[in-house]
Structures are given as C-alpha cells and as structure tokens.
Amino acid sequence: MVFRDLPLVERVRTLHDAGFAVEIWDWTTKDLDELAGTGARFTSMTGYVDGELVDPEGADRLLAGAERSIEASRVLGHPNLNLHGTGLDDRGLPVRPQQVVSPADWLAADRTLRRIAALGEEHDVVFTLENLNVAVDHPGTPFATAADTRTLVAAVGSPHLRMNLDLYHAQIGEGNLVELVRDSAAWIGEVQVADVPGRCEPGTGEIHHPAIARALHDVGYTGTVGMEAWASGDSREAVERFREAFTL
After folding, report:
1. CB of 107 within 8 A of CB of 74?
2. What confidence score (pLDDT) does residue 94 get?
3. pLDDT of residue 101
C-alpha cells in the first residue's frame, strides 16, 4: 500500500532496507520465490483462496485453500495466515454478502474455525481472523466487528487461531479503541492500523496512535503492528510517521 510507484518486489526491498517487515495480501498472484529472495521478513499473508465459514461445501473449500496457503507460506518463512468472515473479491466486497447472521450461522462458523485451528496446530502455523467495517469498505461482511471476531476466536480457544485486530476498521465500526485493545489482549495475534478517515498513515486523522501504542505495551503485547494504510503523500514520510507513532 506504500511505494506504489515501484514494482512489488522493489517495494518489498525498500521496506526491508528501511527496517520494516512486510505483509502481502493474495499470494496466488505473486512470485513468492522472488519475494523470498529479497531477504525481507514476512509477517502476514492471506490464508484464503476460496470458500466461506458457514456453508458446509464452502467450508470444505475454505479448508482446502487454507492448506494451499500453508504450503505457500513456507516459501516466505512463517507468516500469519489471515482470514475474514467471508472471502473478499477484487473490490473488497464479500463473496457472499450476508446482512443477518443467525444463531445457526454462528455455530457453523465455530465448527469451521475449529477445523482451521486444528489445521494450524497440525502444521504449526497461526491463522488470524480479521475484523472489517461494513459502513465504508466492506458492506455485507458477516462476523465483521472486532467483538464478533473476538467471540469466535475465544470460543475456539486455540493458539493457532488468533485475532487480527484491525483498529482502522474498529474505529469506523466500534470506536473506544484503548478499551478494545485491553478487552482483546488475550486473543490478539496481530494488530493493523490506519487513520480515520482516509485510511492513511498515523497522524492524518482522528486516532491518537501513541495512546494505542501505550495500551498495547501496557497489556504486554509484543507481536506485529502492521500499517495497512495508504500514504497520504510521500511513502517514506508515511512509514516514518508510523514508526514514530509506535516507538515508545
């Protein structure tokens, strides 16, 4: 999402040279061997190829795609494998929009995620379930809020299924971010940030990211914080603003 004037592999090298780890989305469209050759550390990639949480046939396809993602992830080291309440198309819209989630849907999602966690345990990888917002970016996504993802992750109770707590999405959908961090601390596998509105780097909107950094420190979080944000101007300045916001 930064240094977009460069080819992807050069973006990765530029971030690596600046001292950052790297995350990617859809691995199926990328030359993983070329990316691995940069020497960068990769912390997250999608664990999704096809399928969904609720429908039984869709759940089987989700598991098959997760297995393919595990195999692909080995090329890049040991990144987390990210999932959502449903797959997203190339416009960021859910592949199966769902405005109402029934009790039966919750139980079905729980069963699917238990299978995902068991797969993670078998292969020693971590899947992360990311919250999204439905008001601006991803309308119709089921199990979208951080409260939803926390409920599912906590119910499964496995170290191989964690939350990807996206605070940009949470600010739009829920707010109260410091308390959200505190309440979710036991289940967080990754944190992602961008400012609101605009989804740009820290310091361009309404979120006070140093308070988020302090809250994460206070709950003992030592994992990845990813800037899933567009650069408002110069990309190098954007990533330095991110570094400054999360350096205590």
Report:
1. no
2. 86
3. 94
Question: Span 208-215, mean pLDDT?
Answer: 98
Q: What is the pTM (predicted TM-score) of this model?
A: 0.96
Q: What is the DSSP string of the chain?
A: --STTS-HHHHHHHHHHTT--EE-S-GGGS-HHHHHTTT--EEEEE--SS-BSSSHHHHHHHHHHHHHHHHHHGGGSS-EEEE-SB-B-TTS-BSS--S---HHHHHHHHHHHHHHHHHHHHHT--EEEE---TTTT-TT-TT-SHHHHHHHHHHH--TTEEEEEEHHHHHHHT--HHHHHHHHGGGEEEEEE--TTTSBSTTSSS--HHHHHHHHHHTT--S-EEE--B-SS-HHHHHHHHHHHT--
Q: Contact, 96 vs 58, CB < 8 A?
A: yes
| Cβ neighbour number for residue 214 with a 10 Å cutoff | 15
Is residue 113 within 8 A of residue 142, CB to CB? The reply is no
Instruction: Find out whether 45 and 21 touch, Cβ atoms under 8 Å.
Output: no
* pLDDT confidence tier of residue 93, bands split at 50, 70 and 90: confident
Mean pLDDT, rounded, for 22-42: 97
Q: Which amino acid is at 2?
A: V
